[in-house]
Amino acid sequence: MTLELLLIEDNEGDVEMTRRALRTAATECRVSVAGNGAQGLECLRREGRFAEATRPDLILLDINMPRMDGKMFLSEIKADPAFKAIPVVMFTSSESPTDIRDCYERQASSYVVKPFEGALYAETVREVVRFWGQIAKLP
Fold first, then answer.
1. Is residue 62 within 8 Å of residue 71, measured between CB atoms?
2. What single-letter DSSP state applies at residue 107?
3. What's the whole-number average pLDDT of the chain?
4. Rounded Cα distance, 46 and 70, in Å
5. What are residue 5's DSSP bridge partners?
């Protein structure tokens, strides 16, 4: 099974590190990238340049982004019956207790703090994908 992953991230370095980590993941992934929450919604709704997008099995979502941040995106999709069952893993550098609480209140599936060290970052991405791709049962 190939896991369809939507990465919503505005930092190109983090996008590249995530793609690199997934090349050696035990779970095969096809990754789509949106640069902010507004683009993430366009991708889910298959609008504009995302008209051919595949419905994701899993969303990795950053919090701090321009236009529409991760919390706003999370609120939008969890209110939409068409998308609310898609697991959303907050993948962010924020360790703020307020951010953590806010995301779980908005029905995030989990909250993972991005490690700064490259090898640990890659291992964390692979573990998140392994859990959702091999252990958890997806809708």
1. no
2. T
3. 95
4. 19
5. 31, 58
| Amino acid code (one letter) for 87 | P
User: Contact, 126 vs 24, CB < 8 A?
Assistant: yes
pLDDT band for 71, please (50, 70, 90 cuts).
very high
pLDDT tens-digit readout, 116-137? 998 999 999 999 999 999 999 9
DSSP per position, 25-75: -SS-EEEEEESSHHHHHHHHHT-GGGTTPPPPSEEEE-S--SSS-HHHHHH
The secondary structure of the chain in percent helix, strand, coil, rounded to multiples of 5, reads: 45, 20, 40
In one letter, which amino acid is 26?
A: A
Four-point Cα dihedral 53, 77, 59, 48, nearest 10: 20
Q: Are 103 and 87 in contact (CB under 8 A)?
A: no
The alpha-helical segments, DSSP class H, found in the chain are 12-23, 37-45, 70-78, 97-105, 118-130
* pTM metric for this prediction: 0.95
Q: By C-alpha distance, which of 4, 34, 6, 8 is closest to 92?
A: 8
Q: How far apart, in Å, are the Cα atoms of 33 and each of 23, 60, 81, 91?
A: 15, 10, 22, 14
